[in-house]
Amino acid sequence: MMLVFVAFVLHFVCVLTTNVSITVFAPKNPTKRLFALERVQPAVEIAIDHAMTDKLRGHLINVEYVNSNASDVDSPVAAFKFMSKGVHLFIGPVYDFGVAPVARYAPKWNIPVISPGAFAHSLNQKRSFQTLTRVHTTFNSMAEFFYRILQHFGWTKIKAISDRFGRNDIFIDFCDLAISSIHQMVIINRDKSYVDYEKYEILREPRDQMTSHVLEKINIKFAGKCF
């Protein structure tokens, strides 16, 4: 999906200028992460090769790769740096806390931002992130799916359990952001039906303590009816 969309945007940008500058944000380490720089770079290069058809012959496409460090500080700092040089397209950042500030500034610069990440529910707000395009399945659709299940079965009590460090191998705060998206969906739809929502975050603790905490937090208040 990202390959096709990047190629499409390049066709559009190249209509406006013959020299196109692209900045790609991705973390260099650890390389095993889903959107590590060494995984993203080949995809971008394939997309550019695909876009360089006869129609774009004579255009120069310059790509700068930035190690974002999955940081909400390094990413916007790099965005300002390359904006001062003159850039036409941002690919990434991919991690939610990094892409959010970049995507907020991008409309002021009239720069499109394409991200295969940006999973968080809040990044769906087009008023704040006008030029952001997310080219991957996000937590919005997952949250909508869960909310439809609640509506279908008439469930009105939710206990959300999240691991603060769960699936950090995908990206930082993956589990927490996934659970938060369901919370946001519940808040948005509270005018339609009442839902009693609580969140419990699993801490790094011995298994016996974790078990007792879960049993204490998830008790008959959130259990089904007894017959």
From TrEMBL:
Claim: Transmembrane is one of the keywords in the record: yes
UniProt keyword annotation of Magnesium present: no
UniProt xrefs under Pfam families: ANF_receptor
A GO term for molecular function: peptide hormone binding
Subcellular location: Membrane
PANTHER family, per the entry: ATRIAL NATRIURETIC PEPTIDE RECEPTOR 3 ISOFORM X1, NATRIURETIC PEPTIDE RECEPTOR 3-RELATED
Protein name: Receptor ligand binding region domain-containing protein
Domain (Receptor ligand binding region): residue spans on this chain: 40-165
UniProt KW keywords: Membrane, Signal, Transmembrane, Transmembrane helix
Residues of the signal peptide: 1-17
